[in-house]
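Z., the sequence and structure:
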Amino acid sequence: MEPPRPTVGALLVDTSRSNRVGEFRGVAGLYWSLRPIGGGREWEVDPRHVRPALPIEQLRARTARANARSRGEVL
């Protein structure tokens, strides 16, 4: 059974890729599409390997994005 679909922009953790944090972008067939929080290439993941990001994981991801923006790496 597929877990409930999150809202676009929700921060999720891909447990099949070393707990990589990504932003939910939508559904691609049987998979969910996630994008790195600081920008970059989207990837697809089986919804069974996704969980909501913990508050500390969300903070780390947002801090990394803010740092990347300050360096001009992302808009």
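The longest strand covers residues 20-28. The chain is about 20% helix and 35% strand.

Let me know what you think.
H.
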